[in-house]
Design goal:
Radius of gyration: 15 Å
Strand content: 15-25%
Largest sheet: 5 strands, parallel
Shape: globular
Strand order of the largest sheet: 2-1-3-5-4
Distance between the termini: 43 Å
Oligomer: single chain
Number of helices: 6
Number of domains: 1
Structural class: alpha/beta
Low-confidence stretches: none
CATH architecture: 3-Layer(aba) Sandwich
CATH topology: Ribose 5-phosphate Isomerase B, Chain: A
Order of helices and strands: EHEHEHEHEHH
Mean pLDDT: 93
CATH superfamily: Sugar-phosphate isomerase, RpiB/LacA/LacB
Length: 152
């Protein structure tokens, strides 16, 4: 199944981004590359926000966010209420992010995992459907913190 996938990174992950974008295109996906495209220092929030706008605006249904650790860009993406970005470093967390949390963006750290592991994470993420059922109620609460049912 082909998808429209947005991908963005900061300078620490631009090489991983380029390789993943090429790999995804070779697999038949339509890839929206939002930069950056070189080693010059840039601010990861700018690229996380670009990716989030692409998801929220319907330009892409799924996103791949990359920076040195994956943490900062994931935080930036998650500032947009239309996005559920999950930081992953192996296929199990990629699968659970989709199955349990209906994540629409996967974030990874180029300084923490290699390209082959990144490909495995993305492949698993794309192949996993949202589980729905009991998870749907919980995912709905992610966008409505005021709906807390059991306050402490």
């Amino acid at each position: 199944m082909t998808r429209r996938i947005a991908i963005a990174s900061d300078h620490a992950a631009y090489q991983m981004k380029a390789e993943l974008a090429r790999w995804l295109r070779d697999a038949g996906h339509d890839v929206l590359d939002l930069g950056t495209d070189g080693p010059d220092s840039v601010d990861y929030p700018d690229y996380g926000y670009r990716l989030a706008r692409a998801i929220a605006g319907g330009e892409a249904e799924t996103g791949v966010a990359l920076c040195g650790s994956g943490i900062g860009i994931s935080i930036a993406v998650n500032r947009n209420p239309a996005c559920r970005s999950a930081l992953v470093s192996e296929p199990l967390s990629a699968r659970l992010a989709r199955e349990h949390n209906d994540a629409n963006v996967i974030a990874m750290g180029a300084r923490l995992i290699g390209i082959e592991m990144a490909k495995e994470c993305v492949a698993t993420f794309l192949a996993t459907p949202f589980g729905g059922d009991r998870h749907q109620r919980r995912v709905a609460k992610l966008g409505a913190p005021e709906a807390e049912a059991n306050p402490a």
